[in-house]
Amino acid sequence: MRTAMRGESRVRAGNGIVRAGRHDPLPTGLIMCRIATFNRVAGSLLVLLLGLALAGCSGGGGGSSPAPTTPPGGVTSLTLSASPSTLSVSAGASTTFTLNVSPASYSPVTVSLLNAPSGMQISTNAGASAGSGTQTETLSTAASTAAGTYTVTLSGSSGALSGTTTLTVQVQAAATGALQLSATPAVLSQPAGGSTTFDVSVSPAAASPVTLTLVNPPVGMQVSTNAGAVAGSGTQSVTLTTTTAVTLGTYSLTLDGSGGGQTASTQLTVQVQPALPAAFVQIEQDTFNYFWNTTNASNGLAPDHYSTANGPSPYASIAATGFALSAYPIGVQNGWVTHAQAAQRVLTTLDFLYNAPQGTSASGDSGYEGFFYHFLDLNTGLRYGTTTGLSSVDNALLMAGVLFDASYFNDGSSTDNQIQTLANALFRRVNWQWMAQADYPLVNLDWTPASGFSPYNWQGYNEAMIVYIEALGSPTYALPTSAWTGWTATYPNFWGTYYGRQQLSFGPLFGSQYSEAWIDFRGIQDAYMRSQGIDYFINSRRATESQQAYAEANPGGWTGYGADLWGLTACDGPGTFSFTNGSGQTLSFQGYYARGAGLQDAYDDGTIAPTAALSSIVFAPGIVIPTIQAMQANYGSYILGQYGFHDAFNPSFQYTSVTPASGTVVPGVGWVDNQYLGIDQGPILMMLENYRSGLVWNVMRQNSVIQAGLKSAGFTGGWLSGTPALQ
User: For FRET with 396, which of 162, 213, 529, 713 sits at 20 to 30 Å CA-CA?
Assistant: First the structure.
C-alpha cells in the first residue's frame, strides 16, 4: 500500500629502576673503628676520609631519575592509594590496577604484599615513568589460591620513605572445563581511524575476564578490554580500534584469549570502511546541537521543524522527540554534553510524557491507550489542532528513543534508575493490540477521536518495520507472529530489479533508514530475506546505490543530477508550482512531499535532500562521502547552517518571481530551504554515529524488547545467534 507520508511518519578510554638510598649507609661504629686505625694520620686526613666514607656510602646504585634521598619538608612517609581498591580475580588468573604515589617524585615504588594468601603475588608493569606519581600493578593468583575475600596490605618503598595501602581482593573459584570464547557480534564494521565495541563471552565464566589479542591483524588495528569487566561474570566489553593507516577491506581474524591458565580463540570479521572526514564530525555535532538547543527544555518535546527565520514550530512532533531522546546519548559519548546533563533532559522528557493526560477528548489530552498524538503543543504538550491523530509509526519512533535511553542510562544512579522505570512504564502501556483491532493483527496507521481508526493498515515494504518489531516484542500487549506474516505478505509487490539491483523497493530513502537507525539488521534475516539470500541492510545498500544510478541516468533532466548529486526522500520543497520551460515541457513542483526513486512510490521534482544521502552512509559510504563533499563544495554556503544541512534544495527551481513555501530562490543556484526538520535531522545524527562507533546499534542489540520482537518475527543469524553477517 502507499504510505500517507506527511499524515504519518513524515509529518514532521618501575621495575628495573635502582633507587638512590636503597642501601643503608655504613654504621657509625664501623666508621669510627676505621678512623682509630689511622690515629697517626693528620686531622685533615681524618676529616677527608670521613667525608669520603659518608659520601661514598650514601650513594645509590645508578639508574635513571633516582628518587630523592632527602624527603621534602614535613614528609615522613609515602601516601599510597589503589584504583580500584577492590579487585576481583579468578584463581589462576590476574588483574591490573593503578597505584597512586605521593609525593610523585618517589614513584615508581618497590611494592610487596603483606598478609596475602598463598599464591597471590604483585608486580609492577613495565613502562612506569619516574616521577609520574602512578604505576600499573598486576595482581596474580595461583590456581591453588583458595576462593574468598581477602583484605591485604600493599607496601611500597622508595628512597627514605615507605607507605602502605589496603586492597580488598575477591578471589573466585578457579575455572574448570575447556576455555571457550565467542564474540557478539562476530562481524564488525567501522571506518578507518574509528572504533567500535563488541562483547566477548567466556566459558567457563570463572575464567573471565581473559586477556585478548588479535592474531596477525593489519597494521593499525588492535583490541582492548574496556574498564569495568567483572571477574567471573562470563562476559567482557571489548573495543576494536583502527588508525587511518589501515587498508580498507574485509579481514577474517582470529581473536586469542587467555585466562585461568588456558587459551582459546574465536573468529572475527572486520570490515574497514573509508575514514570519515573531519567535516562530517562537525556536521554530526551541529546536528546534535539542533536537538539540544531547539527542544523545549522544560518538557523535553522537540519541535517538528526549526526555521532560521521564525525559530521552532509551535508544535512538537513525537517522532522528532524520539530522535531527540536518541540524540542525547550520542552527545554524551562524544563529550558534547555530560552524562548528568543528558540524563536530566531525558528524565524531564519521560516524566512529562508519563504524566501527560490520556483520554478520548478532542482536546485537552496528549494521547490515548499509551499512544501520543502525532503533534503536541510545544509548550503545553496537549493535542495540537483538531485533525492530529495517534500515528502508530510516529509513536514507534518515539518509543524507539525511549527504549534506547532505557538501555543506555544504566549507571545505577538515582537519575538513571528513574529513567529506566519511566521508560519501561511508558512502553508497557502502549496498547498495540488496541491499535490492531480494526484488522487484527495488522497495525492501523492512525486513530482520531472523531473518526476512529484509519481505513489503512501497515503492510510492507516501508519504514514501519520498527512498528511491528516493537509490537511483537511488547511485554504487555504483544502481537502474534502472524502480524509479521501479514506485514510481509505484500512484499512480492515491492520486489524487483531497479537500475540493475534486485531489492524490496520503496522510493523514498527514509523507508530504508528509520528502522535501521536503531536496529542493526546486518546478517539477521526473516523468512522472506532468507528466501532472497540477502538481509535488510544489504537491501538498503542496493536502494542507496540505485538512487545514485537513477541520478546518473537523470530521466527527468533535472539540473545538477549525477554521481555526486542525488538523494530523494520525503522533505521540504519549493512549493506547489507548475511552469513551462523553453522546450514547452511542463515542470511541476511540490512543497513538503515524499520524493523517491524506486519501483514503488516514485516522485521527483529536482529537489535534493541531504538527509537522503547522508543518512545512508552506513549502507554505502563509498558513494555517500564524495556526494556530501560535493554538496559542501558546490552549495555549502547556501545549504549548511548552524545546525548542519538545511532540509532540501532544488537547483532546477530558478523561478525568482514566486514566493516559495519556505526558504528562498538564489539566482544561479536555485531554491534553498531555510528549515531543519527533526525527522530528517535525527537519521543524519544517528547514522553518522552508527558509522563511526555503532553506538545506537550496540546499545539496542541489548534491549529485551528489540530482541524479543525480532525473534518473534522469525529473525535468525548475525548478532542474534553469533554467526557472521552476509557480505
Answer: 529
Q: Is residue 723 part of a domain?
A: no
| First vs last C-alpha separation in the chain | 30
pLDDT in tens, 120-167: 999 998 888 888 999 999 998 988 898 889 999 999 999 889 999 999
Which string of DSSP letters, residue by residue, matches 347-371?
A: HHHHHHHHHS-BSS-SSS-SEETTE
Whether residue 214 has pLDDT greater than 90: yes
Q: Could you tell me if 607 and 589 are in contact, meaning their C-beta atoms sit under 8 angstroms apart? A: yes
Residues 465 and 590 in one domain: yes
Using alpha carbons, select from 199, 125, 139, 138 the residue that is nearest to residue 170. 139
Cell numbers representing residue 384 in the block? 495540537
Please state, in angstroms and rounded to a whole number, the distance separating the CA atoms of residues 616 and 614. 5
- Per DSSP bridges, beta strands 86-90 and 161-172 are parallel
* 513 in the same domain as 608: yes
Cβ-Cβ contacts under 8 Å for 485 (sequence gap 6 or more): none
DSSP 8-state code for residue 117: P
Peptide bond into 461 cis (omega under 30): yes
Q: What string of DSSP letters covers 78-91?
A: -EEEEESSEEEEET
Question: Over 50: is that where the pLDDT of 37 sits?
Answer: no
Instruction: Please give the tally of structural domains in the chain.
Output: 4
Residue 194's domain is classified under what CATH number? 2.60.40.10
Q: How far is CA 102 from CA 22, 63, 81, 82, 163, in A?
A: 18, 21, 9, 12, 10
Which of 29-38, 274-283, 310-319, 526-535 is predicted least confidently?
A: 29-38
CATH number at residue 461: 1.50.10.140
**H/E run at residue 481:** helix 481-488
